[in-house]
User: Which sequence fits this backbone?
């Protein structure tokens, strides 16, 4: 049976745009014989039941996530396909700790660099998605989802000012709020943007923070990989942690030839020059595009397209989104046979069911709230028909002039209308 | 008017009405806009620190989650973040009083924070991320991060792997939440059942949001397996030494480990389901490490 690895598609002359996918590709190309696996850039998480990429398919079995795939390969080959087999004692502890360190430090930084930094997102990442990775209509749906997730994941670093577009929108919103509150006269125009055009012009406090955040990731990394070490754990063979470092590292080290604002690559070159060098070397050896067993992707089926649209709508709807998260959790609870004991599984399923009640409660609250608002507006008189018309007239007068609103005669009559056209 | 129309054939009446209608459809409805125009959002300045009987204490005061009896005897706090700093300051040999408090009292929105006896600078409270610097200035202990390159790497096990499993166990697991978190965090703040329900919901939502940041759904088995691995790595790192990194005295890393191991094993917490405890009991040296440090309280 040939194993099939589904990943996010290639970008920046790397086999994938996602760090976990890159790590998995590197791991498989190091462990498995050439003819035992194929690589499919399906770029569609809904191919796998776990809704995540990378996903490894073996017949009817699906495994997703780098760590799970590593574990699955070890079990499947009864220990033959395992880079970590020889680890003992402190090496094994180091492997666990380094994995945890990379998994916690790098994703928020990559999210900031690739998705939140607006120049990079609009001029490099979005074009890569639409030209190489996705097909219509996913190009309109998936990158914004990834961007929203990236913002959530990097929120705690407090560097949201890298998103210049959002800053500009905030400024406009504040301005109109100030006008509405009467603190500014409406005639005063919005001042020219004082926001920086590049990261080098960031707010000073944010530049310090960026310095601190990149130092927290790269300085321990530089200490982990000193010049005399060939691999992270010091042996003469690569292990799974090396694959993970390569996955994160080659996206973090992207230079000015790929990204407009390569601040992350720049910081990495300054703080961990040896790691950048290491990543470059390994990248050509383990992730060479033409050496990988690529298989062409199937044309997107109309059902997968419909599925993507359905998922996007569902994720964007507040209460529905919660409901889906909860359902997925219950499915996980019921599906796992081996790891959970019966009482644990029943407790988790019970929790998920009780959470369902919360969801229905919030539905009821939303419906009640809307009803109360409408009722209040009707009572106060906002909603009477005259108010609507007045408001529309106001709106039209304030609105831009570019929309021409044709005058419709009071009593519209087909013959009159045609007559006026032909005889004027 | 009609002659105008002929000069610009693109601007036919049908197109224009459609555009106008589409704009009306997507713009904020006028009555709603009017309401929001009337109520501009105002951000009030932060409240002052609450004045209470603790305010006239003289020494260093550390504000943590604890109850009144615990505060009198300086017993360990039931919140891992607070316990970490409480233990660290105690190990460093700094005298301080414990004062029960809540997140709403803190200038940063999170406990712990410290009001020093001898104010530094502008008499501001010290938030938890500056506590280590302050302690180093006070007693001239060493900054452990500098001494061992593994510190930061292994600290990520505590700050993420074990913390996520802790969040799941305490807040997301319904039985534990009712038995432990509700009793410790929700009930002391108020007696009003409506506020209690809202607070409980907020706490659970915050924990879920934190867990969903790193994965697309909450997988309890994966969280517990990762915590198990983390305990294994910490146990190997400690080995037969008395303290982490073979230091003569317990330090910040010991305090961070103790903050979780003590609370996971503490009988008084009243866990209903304690999977983390089962995982932790496999590592005898971590249990002894906790016992040794508990004797210092």
Assistant:
């Amino acid at each position: 049976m040939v194993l099939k690895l589904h990943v996010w598609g290639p970008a920046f002359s790397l086999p994938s745009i996602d760090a976990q996918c890159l790590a998995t590709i590197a791991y498989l190309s190091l462990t498995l014989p050439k003819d035992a696996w194929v690589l499919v850039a399906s770029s569609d998480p809904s191919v796998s039941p776990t809704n995540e990429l990378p996903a490894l398919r073996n017949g009817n079995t699906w495994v997703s996530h780098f760590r799970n795939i590593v574990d699955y390969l070890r079990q499947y080959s009864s220990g033959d396909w395992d880079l970590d087999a020889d680890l003992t004692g402190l090496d094994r502890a180091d492997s666990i700790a380094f994995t945890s360190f990379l998994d916690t430090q790098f994703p928020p930084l990559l999210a900031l660099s690739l998705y939140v930094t607006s120049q990079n997102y609009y001029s490099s990442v979005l074009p890569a998605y639409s030209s190489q990775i996705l097909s219509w209509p996913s190009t309109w749906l998936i990158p914004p989802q990834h961007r929203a997730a990236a913002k959530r994941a990097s929120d705690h670093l407090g560097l949201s000012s890298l998103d210049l577009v959002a800053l500009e929108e905030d400024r406009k919103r504040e301005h109109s709020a100030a006008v509405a509150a009467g603190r500014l006269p409406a005639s005063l125009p919005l001042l020219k943007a004082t926001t920086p055009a590049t990261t080098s012009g960031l707010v000073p406090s944010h530049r310090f923070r960026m310095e601190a955040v990149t130092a927290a990731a790269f300085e321990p990394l530089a200490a982990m990989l000193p010049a005399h070490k060939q691999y992270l754990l010091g042996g003469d063979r690569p292990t799974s942690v090396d694959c993970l470092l390569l996955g994160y590292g080659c996206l973090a080290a992207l230079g000015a030839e790929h990204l407009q604002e390569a601040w992350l690559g720049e910081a990495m070159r300054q703080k961990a020059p040896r790691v950048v060098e290491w990543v470059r070397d390994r990248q050509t050896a383990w992730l060479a595009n033409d050496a990988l067993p690529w298989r062409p992707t199937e044309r997107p089926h109309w059902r997968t397209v419909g599925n993507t649209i359905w998922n996007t709508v569902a994720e964007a709807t507040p209460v529905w989104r919660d409901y889906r998260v909860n359902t997925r959790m219950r499915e996980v609870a019921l599906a796992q046979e081996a790891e959970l004991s019966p009482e644990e599984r029943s407790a988790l399923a019970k929790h998920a069911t009780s959470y369902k009640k919360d969801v229905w409660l919030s539905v009821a609250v939303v419906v009640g709230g809307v009803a109360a608002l409408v009722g209040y507006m009707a009572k106060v008189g906002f909603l009477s028909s005259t108010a609507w018309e007045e408001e529309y007239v106001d709106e039209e007068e304030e609105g831009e002039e570019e929309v021409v609103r044709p005058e419709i005669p009071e009593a519209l009559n087909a013959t009159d209308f045609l007559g006026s056209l032909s005889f004027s | 008017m009609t002659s105008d129309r002929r000069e610009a054939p693109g601007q036919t009446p049908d197109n224009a009405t459609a555009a106008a209608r589409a704009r009306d459809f997507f713009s904020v409805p006028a009555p709603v806009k009017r309401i929001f125009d009337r109520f501009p959002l105002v951000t009030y300045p932060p409240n002052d620190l609450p004045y209470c009987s603790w305010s006239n204490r003289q020494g260093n005061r550390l504000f943590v989650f604890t109850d009144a009896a615990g505060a009198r005897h300086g017993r360990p706090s039931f919140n891992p973040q607070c316990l970490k700093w409480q233990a660290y300051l105690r190990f460093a040999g700094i005298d301080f009083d414990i004062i029960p408090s809540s997140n709403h009292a803190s200038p940063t929105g999170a406990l712990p924070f410290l009001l020093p006896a001898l104010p530094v600078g502008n008499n501001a409270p010290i938030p938890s991320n500056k506590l280590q610097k302050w302690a180093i200035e006070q007693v001239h202990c060493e900054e452990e991060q500098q001494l061992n390159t593994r510190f930061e790497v292994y600290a990520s096990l505590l700050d993420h792997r074990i913390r996520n499993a802790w969040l799941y166990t305490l807040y997301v697991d319904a039985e534990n939440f009712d038995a432990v978190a509700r009793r410790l965090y929700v009930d002391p703040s108020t007696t009003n059942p409506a506020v209690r329900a809202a607070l409980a919901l907020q706490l659970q939502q915050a924990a879920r949001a934190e867990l969903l940041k790193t994965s697309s759904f909450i997988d309890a088995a994966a969280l517990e397996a990762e915590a198990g691995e983390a305990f294994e790595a910490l146990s190997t790192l400690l080995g037969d030494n008395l303290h982490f990194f073979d230091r003569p005295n317990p330090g910040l890393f010991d305090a961070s480990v103790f903050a979780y191991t003590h609370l996971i094993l503490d009988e008084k917490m009243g866990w209903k389901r304690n999977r983390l405890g089962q995982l932790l009991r496999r590592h005898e040296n971590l249990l002894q490490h906790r016992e040794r440090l508990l004797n210092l309280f």
In short: Confidence is low (pLDDT under 50) at residues 1-13 of chain B. The beta strands of chain B are 61-64, 97-100, 113-115, 126-127. The first strand of chain B starts at residue 61 and ends at 64.
